[in-house]
Design brief:
This protein has 246 residues and is mostly helical. It has 13 helices and no strands. The structure holds iron/sulfur cluster.
Length: 246
């Protein structure tokens, strides 16, 4: 190459912007859609581990499940199950709950915490059920969501467990923690997590999937020190964010 031509090439190269390739951060790695083969392996393993998974709240009617779910906010299912028999014996249906004296309702649900708000939610939701739905719990997400004191999570619990309608994925603290550790989402907001999980899990398993993660979160993948060495999901789990395990 002639001297002047070499000079021109060098000049051109120097004028080009320098593009450095950045290593993908751990965050961007896990925002990729999870491998469907891995997700299917996780689902098959969870199904096998928890064949009898079901709602941990005691109920005999959709209304009882609705009330129990409202009471379960910031409270254990065991505590709710100890509270509801006396409540349902005293006020057996939506009409009775809607007309119950607030102070009496508060006393009956006091042990579940946040009892003033919970009593008010129960009374108002039941008043709506009587006024707008003939005393029966409605069967759609929109109608349930429109009841006072009923959020998306409560509506999904009722539809999935009382009516067998898979309207969404119930996201609680266990589902949040596990779906992140399992590399299924990086979201922390419950609704965003739900919408990230819905395309990954077949709709007929949405309700069960929540139960599986809740059971696994309690038994193996606990918040502080998950038992990764004994976890059957380990071969399929990237253990995102796990720094200490046993
Ligand atoms: S391998 Fe560890 S982080 Fe993954 S699900 Fe099991 S216990 Fe949780």
């Amino acid at each position: 190459m002639a001297g002047s031509k070499k000079k021109a090439v060098r000049k051109k190269a120097a004028a080009r912007p320098v593009v450095r390739k950045r290593a993908p951060s751990s965050r961007s790695r896990h925002t990729l859609t999870p491998d469907p083969v891995r997700v299917n392996a996780l689902l098959a393993q969870l199904r096998e581990l928890y064949p009898d998974a079901k709602c941990a709240l005691d109920f005999s009617t959709p209304l009882q499940l609705l009330i129990a779910t409202i009471l379960s906010a910031q409270c254990t299912d065991e505590r709710v199950n100890k509270t509801t028999p006396a409540l349902f014996a005293r006020f057996p249906d939506a009409q009775a709950l809607a007309g119950a004296p607030l102070s009496e309702l508060e006393a009956l649900v006091r042990s579940t915490g946040f009892f003033r708000n919970k009593a008010k939610s129960i009374k108002e939701a039941c008043a709506d059920i009587v006024a707008k739905h003939g005393g029966q719990v409605p069967r759609t997400l929109d109608e349930l969501f429109a009841l006072r004191g009923v959020g998306r999570k409560t509506a999904n619990v009722v539809l999935g467990n009382a009516f067998g309608i898979n309207s969404g994925v119930v996201v609680d603290t266990h589902v949040t923690r596990l779906s992140n550790r399992l590399g299924l989402t990086t979201e922390q907001d419950a609704v965003k997590i739900e919408f990230a999980l819905m395309p990954l899990v077949p709709q007929e398993s949405w309700t069960l999937f929540s139960h599986w993660l809740i059971l696994h979160g309690r038994a193996v993948c606990n918040a502080r020190k998950p038992h990764c060495s004994a976890c059957p999901l380990s071969p399929h789990c990237p253990k995102v964010g796990v720094t200490v395990s046993q």
